[in-house]
Amino acid sequence: MEIVLSGIRPTGNLHLGNYFGAIKNFVKMQEENQCFFFIADYHSLTTHPKPGDLHGNVKQVLAEYLATGLDPEKATLYVQSDLPEIAELYLILNMNAYMGELERVTTFKEKARKQPENVNAGLLTYPSLMAADILIHKAHKVPVGKDQEQHLEMTRTFARRFNRMYQEDFFPIPQAYNFGADLVKVPGLDGSGKMGKSEGEGNAIFLVDDPSVIRKKVMRAVSDAGPSEPNQQKPEPIENLFSLLKIVSAPEVVGFFDQQYNQCAIRYGDLKKQLAEDVIAFTDPIRKRILEIAADEAYISKVARLGAEKARESAAKTVKEVREIIGFRPF
Ligand code: TYM
User: pLDDT tens digit string along 90-129?
Assistant: First the structure.
């Protein structure tokens, strides 16, 4: 049985990008594999959240994970900071992670540019922590969106380096879950780039968004004046709207608007109305489950405690073996 591991930072509600990039196949995955799903709260410290907010966000993401169909009896759902073993493996991996390679990571360079006042060591060593997350359970597969591709590549580098250094075939070399197929990048509504919680107001559609909010966001999505000649290539904002439509709507619907576009007869208002309704048809059952589960604090606590216990067992075993391999031997 293969080991699958997936993580999400608790920096806000889950959006369509998270869902279609990393969560979509959970229900099937948990039937066929040993799954570990966790909330990356150590990672979120790079942005210095307020303690009260952090705990609330972790609880919310736990509820949202569960609402997407994750079954805590079948999969192990836990909070990263409940496993101090991860911090130990992170420290060990950092000893063989080099400044040069860490500084070249695109997300680090982007963050350093966007927040020059807070270029902390946690940001630089983010790939080592992510590698520790994955290697702590010796995971084979990692469901991630396109934006995490480079981090996963770093994990492979660290795993190979460790195996080579100690001449042990210890860590499996993890692959993206949809190995072979392209990783997904769900675009945002602002006309450029990916959907993300930190990309600005109105760019992301959250699973918990009310239908009226979704309608408003989608109607405000960036478009343009329309094509001026038949079969014209779509500029990025329009391509993005079509990408979203492809994700939530039936192929006939996409085909219809595509044809309208190619004939210069497209009405973006109609496309957006359809897109909003199809998004709502998808998110609304999940939204209702999120609200139900989020209200049941006792259930969420129970899931987190049970998950921590199961995950810790696996993490402690790996760390014990790593300690032995690197020469930390008991007296
Ligand atoms: P995070 O919290 O930014 O996002 C969680 C997951 O959602 C995917 N995702 C997207 N996929 C497609 N299109 C989008 N617009 C989009 N936005 C987000 C991300 O690729 C990710 O899979 N570093 C990770 C969290 C993490 C992790 C791990 C993941 C920490 N340790 C170990 C996997 C394994 C992150 O910041 O994801």
Answer: 999 999 999 999 999 999 999 999 999 999 999 999 999 9
> Could you give the CA distance from residue 267 to residue 257 in angstroms, rounded to a whole number?
9
What's the CA-to-centroid distance between 211 and ligand 1, angstroms?
25
Q: What is the pLDDT of residue 28?
A: 87
Residue with tokens 């031997």: 329
Of 24, 141, 194, 272, the catalytic one is 194
Element (H, E) at 128: helix 126-135
Let me know: does 312 contact 82? Beta carbons within 8 Å.
Answer: yes
Predicted confidence band of residue 180 (pLDDT cuts 50, 70, 90): low
197 noted as active-site residue: yes
> If you measure from the C-alpha of residue 197 to the centroid of ligand 1, how many angstroms do you get, rounded to a whole number?
11
Question: Domains of the chain (ranges plus CATH)?
Answer: 3-184+297-326 (3.40.50.620), 197-291 (1.10.240.10)
Of 4, 14, 16, 18, best ligand 1 pocket probe by most atoms within 8 Å of the beta carbon: 18
- 294-319 pLDDT, tens digit each: 999 999 999 999 999 999 999 999 99
Q: How many CA atoms lie within 13 A of 93 on its CB side?
A: 29
More confident residue, 199 or 25: 25
CA proximity to 36, closest of 157, 171, 141: 141
User: pLDDT tens-digit profile of 54-63?
Assistant: 999 999 999 9
Phi, psi for residue 76 in degrees, rounded to 5: -100, 115
Q: How far is CA 109 from the centre of its chain?
A: 20
User: Which of these is catalytic: 197, 234, 273, 310?
Assistant: 197
Closest residue CA from atom 4 of ligand 1: 8
What lies within 8 Å, CB to CB, of 301 at 6+ separation is: none
Q: How far apart are CA 40 and CA 42, in angstroms?
A: 6
Q: Which two tokens stand for residue 121?
A: 């060591």
